[in-house]
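A.,

Following up on our hallway conversation. Structure tokens first:
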């Protein structure tokens, strides 16, 4: 068979050879031939992987060829043989697995190509010598393959049957060899496999040593020892095949209602880039996770079906994994940490990152040769599971029945939140496992318009329950008094303003959730599940327009010489679905830039809907306060400015709120009507007051159409009770032009205006205020 007739690219393309343009000037060079020795030392010029899948088997064939004629001739002829030999494997397969190893089959063509020999005298002498010898035959040969880079350990031993080769130039010899191969040092196989998986196998040197019995015709040439060193580097060294998970299904197994564990069924595929063919028997593996002490813990077991390996084809295999009850050592937190060996695996998986487990040979089937089990059992290798992003694992995160508890200044420094937390978990479609959750905990960041407002501390375990809804899992947990830490005062102020006077606030919660799950694998914690959700807090002012609460039942509860302390009932409506507990809150009150007092509430509970709140206020009357109080009693439209400060909600920071509100007309009209008695020159007044007081003096003047009707100057105190009061008869000095007007109105009513300076006393507090009234009804009697 001539090399010129060989196709340029087929399964017969040399496995160990390569093109070398530097040999183009050699005579008799065929189109595609390449010597074994040059092909292994020269760099690859094309992006084709020339990895000899069965290194040992290929070397054995080279050794046989060299042994058959190389050692039967002078050293020059040996050099010729080493450069000229060309091996073209067309098929490499494993015929069967034996108790001691494997029976491999090599099919291909071997020839000598003189054109590959660079030295002309060696080339000419070699062609002449091989023409004379014509044919060489080897006896049964044993070849040992060693790895110099790995302490020269024995990789394996092959026994090759007798081979007869025609050694004339370019004479093709078809070979069909069955060789028995036994594994050598198991530790060596494990080390090279680990370096291969870890991507550290950048180059590989092997050395084959063969003792070859030779004969040429009827002449026995004795036993000769052949040593051949080969080196693989660059593209000749393969990369780890990429494993594609095509299908994954996880379900419980065992008796209905009494699961024994979880079964994972997967279909995986990988490309076989090598001209290698065999059937891989069913194999069992233990799946391991690192423990707290860098050892391994059994996580589960896997088993493969028979896998048919075909040359240069995509290989598909079915894998079944079983995970039974997890040991406590796998789910318990390692000493000095908060995570267990299982946490990192689940955390990476849920985050969509690649996860690493370790596999080691397990208990093999009785039909599997023992030597395979020994190699697998002594080999532990990392195995990467592809990441699976679960961006929508948490479909919804919400809160219901929310209750805020502002901090008690005597015991705590943070507001607290109670609510029913609802988490809707979207279970992966490939997972058909019953899950139950009995408690959850979380750390959450609370944002407003993209800015961090605070942190919600749910680190304490909260009782919960889970309900299956279609393919989703609804987890509900009752959270009690979870602390809320304000991180940004400015953002907090914006939120409060929007709730009080704006259109409400939409808060965004970004949390990591831990769940204590109850499954067929036992009880364990799944940590750091990402969750996001929005909470909308309705405005207290309904549609965004502030409505002044109704103030009723005002009374003076304390006095001093300079101040009053008042208590009132405030009726307000909470339009939100949230409630709140306020142990204490305090604001200052201002008039025209001057602080005139304080207002505060304590031990208040606000619920959705109508609320009745008891509030207190102190009033420090200076000149500004006196003026405002006079206007207020006279029925003017007055307002108060309310400001927060550092102690508004102790010990929280100042929310920075300021609001000017109209003052409710609590008095109505302080002076309701007057009765003037003409003959006695006296007058009585119908007065209204929300609280009891004493009028200590009155200096008043009444006008009718800007004409003075009369004056009162009274310095004797009289009491005013809560509600309507009739004053004593106070003496009136009639104006000089008032008699006619009064006489004409006897038995009727005049509309009078009045101005007065009034002295009042409430408890220890005493003050002089002015009063103005217009269009007052004055009855005129004899």
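Then the amino acids I'd put at each of the 782 positions:
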């Amino acid at each position: 068979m001539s090399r010129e007739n060989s196709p340029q690219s087929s399964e017969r393309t040399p496995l160990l050879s390569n093109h070398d343009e530097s040999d183009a000037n050699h005579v008799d060079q065929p189109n595609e031939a390449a010597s074994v020795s040059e092909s292994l030392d020269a760099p690859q010029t094309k992006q084709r992987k020339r990895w000899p899948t069965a290194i040992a088997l290929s070397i054995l064939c080279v050794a046989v060829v060299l042994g058959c004629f190389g050692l039967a001739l002078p050293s020059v002829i040996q050099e010729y043989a080493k450069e000229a030999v060309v091996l073209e494997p067309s098929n490499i397969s494993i015929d069967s697995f034996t108790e001691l190893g494997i029976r491999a089959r090599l099919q291909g063509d071997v020839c000598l190509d003189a054109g590959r020999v660079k030295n002309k005298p060696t080339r000419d002498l070699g062609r002449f010598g091989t023409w004379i010898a014509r044919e060489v035959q080897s006896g049964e040969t044993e070849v040992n393959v060693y790895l110099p880079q790995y302490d020269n350990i024995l990789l394996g031993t092959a026994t090759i049957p007798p081979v007869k080769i025609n050694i004339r130039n370019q004479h093709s010899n078809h070979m069909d060899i069955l060789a028995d191969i036994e594994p050598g040092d198991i530790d060596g196989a494990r080390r090279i496999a680990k370096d291969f998986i870890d991507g550290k196998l950048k180059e590989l040197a092997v050395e084959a040593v063969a003792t070859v019995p030779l004969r040429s015709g009827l002449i026995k040439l004795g036993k000769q020892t052949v040593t051949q060193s080969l080196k693989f580097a660059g593209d000749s060294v393969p990369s780890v095949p990429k494993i594609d998970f095509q299908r994954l299904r996880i379900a419980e197994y065992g008796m209905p209602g009494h699961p024994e564990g979880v079964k994972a069924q997967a279909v995986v595929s990988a490309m076989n880039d090598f001209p290698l063919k065999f059937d891989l028997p069913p194999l069992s593996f233990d799946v391991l996770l690192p423990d707290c002490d860098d050892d391994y813990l059994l996580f589960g077991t896997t088993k493969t079906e028979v896998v048919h390996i075909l040359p240069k084809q995509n290989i598909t295999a079915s894998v079944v994994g079983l995970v039974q009850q997890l040991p406590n050592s796998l789910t318990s937190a390692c000493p000095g940490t908060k995570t267990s060996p299982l946490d990192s695996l689940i955390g990476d998986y849920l985050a969509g990152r690649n996860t690493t487990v370790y596999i080691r040979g397990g208990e093999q089937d009785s039909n599997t040769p023992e030597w395979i089990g020994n190699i697998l059992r002594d080999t532990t290798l990392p195995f990467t599971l592809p990441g699976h992003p679960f961006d929508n694992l948490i479909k919804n995160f919400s809160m219901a029945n929310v209750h805020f508890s502002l901090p008690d200044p005597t015991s705590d420094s943070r507001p607290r939140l109670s609510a029913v937390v609802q988490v809707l978990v979207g279970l992966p479609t490939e997972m058909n496992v019953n899950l139950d959750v009995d408690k959850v905990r979380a750390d959450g960041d609370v944002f407003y318009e993209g800015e961090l407002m605070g942190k919600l501390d749910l680190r304490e375990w909260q009782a919960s329950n889970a309900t299956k809804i279609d393919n989703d899992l609804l987890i509900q947990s009752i959270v009690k008094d979870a602390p809320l830490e304000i991180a940004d005062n400015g953002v907090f102020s914006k939120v409060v303003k929007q709730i009080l006077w704006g259109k409400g606030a939409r808060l965004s919660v970004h949390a990591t959730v831990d769940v204590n799950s109850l499954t067929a694998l036992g009880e364990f914690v799944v940590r750091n599940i990402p969750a996001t959700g929005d909470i909308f807090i309705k405005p207290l002012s309904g549609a965004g327009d502030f409505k002044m609460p109704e103030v009723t039942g005002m009374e003076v509860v304390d006095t001093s010489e300079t101040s009053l302390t008042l208590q009132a009932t405030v009726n307000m409506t909470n339009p939100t679905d949230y409630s709140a507990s306020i142990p204490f809150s305090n604001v200052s009150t201002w008039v025209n830039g001057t602080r005139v007092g304080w207002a505060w509430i304590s031990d208040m509970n606000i619920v959705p809907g109508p609320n009745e709140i008891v509030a207190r206020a102190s009033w420090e009357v200076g000149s500004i306060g006196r003026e405002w109080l006079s206007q207020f009693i006279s029925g003017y439209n007055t307002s108060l400015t309310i400001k927060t400060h550092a102690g508004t909600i102790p010990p929280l920071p100042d929310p920075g709120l300021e609001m000017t509100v109209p003052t409710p007309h609590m008095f109505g009209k302080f002076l309701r009507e007057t009765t003037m008695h003409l003959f006695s020159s006296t007058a009585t007044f119908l007065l209204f007051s929300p609280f009891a007081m004493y009028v200590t003096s009155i200096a008043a003047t009444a006008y009718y159409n800007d004409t003075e009707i009369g004056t009162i100057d009274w310095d004797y105190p009289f009491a005013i009770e809560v509600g309507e009061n009739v004053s004593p008869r106070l003496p009136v000095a009639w104006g000089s032009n008032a008699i006619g007007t009064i006489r004409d109105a006897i038995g009727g009513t005049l509309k009078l205006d009045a101005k007065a300076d009034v002295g009042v006393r409430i408890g220890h507090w005493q003050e002089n205020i002015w009063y103005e009234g217009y269009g007052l009804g004055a009855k005129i009697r004899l």
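The domain at 394-537 is CATH 2.60.40 (Immunoglobulin-like). Curious whether your intuition agrees with the design.

B.
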